[in-house]
Amino acid sequence: MFSTAVKKPIYRSDTDGETETFIVDEWMPPLRKPSHRWHNICVLCLFALSCLLLGLSVLVHFHPKSATDQECLRRLNVASPVHDVFEYEDVQFDNAFWKPSPYKGKPTPDLESKWKDLWYYGSFGLPDTYLAPLNKSANGIEGNAWARTKSGDVLAGLEVFHNLHCLNLIRQYTHRFEYDYSDDPAFHGDEELVLADVTPFLHTNGPRGIQPDFDSQHRCPKYDRIIQWAKERQIMVEHP
Q1: Which of 122, 170, 200, 212 has the fewest Cβ atoms within 10 angstroms?
Q2: Residues near 164 by Cβ (< 8 Å), separated by ≥ 6?
Q3: What are the residues facing 40 on neighbouring strands?
Q4: In this model, does residue 227 exceed pLDDT 90?
Q5: Which helix (H) or strand (E) holds 62?
Q6: What are the percentages of helix, strand and coil residues in the chain, rounded to 5?
Q7: pLDDT at 194
Q8: What is the mean pLDDT of residues 64-82?
């Protein structure tokens, strides 16, 4: 606690006997200049922090984090629940015209079955949250409401199976006189594939002249993961 005692001030006179106008208080300690130590420390800390933040900003600007496959997939494509299971692989196509393939040749029951395994999967339930990203109204189109599953989701399918189905119809049409397709629905092979593959393919120059080399490099989603996703969720499978 501070003492309340005050020493009586002393008045000093000049040589003429006149009292000076100032007073000397002998109890008052000598005045000290305020310490700037903590002020300097705070300034240095703020300066160091500013330099650190500036350095991090420059680092992030010139060395940005690379986007993952999933981030690129969602940024460059229309929304789809299948994106969650997408996994890419690098594939060298083995696609020359004269090379055998399990999907080439004249139609047989075995060949038809292989093609069907590529695309014949049922629809699935899609939450309403996907309607806006798909540019669809919640009320349906042309006065028709969306078909619903028992759980209330929108009934949906995957375009990849639809496109492969159309491609299969084109294949079947070319062999329509060699196989009985009378139990299949009417052909509607006028659909267009909208995914433009811009991968360059080269040409060879040999005894047969200039020939295309379709064994090009591609980065493809693993198709078996897409099929597995569809199998686990398919509903309303129609049997021909």
Answers
A1: 200
A2: 118, 119
A3: none
A4: yes
A5: helix 37-62
A6: 35, 15, 50
A7: 58
A8: 86
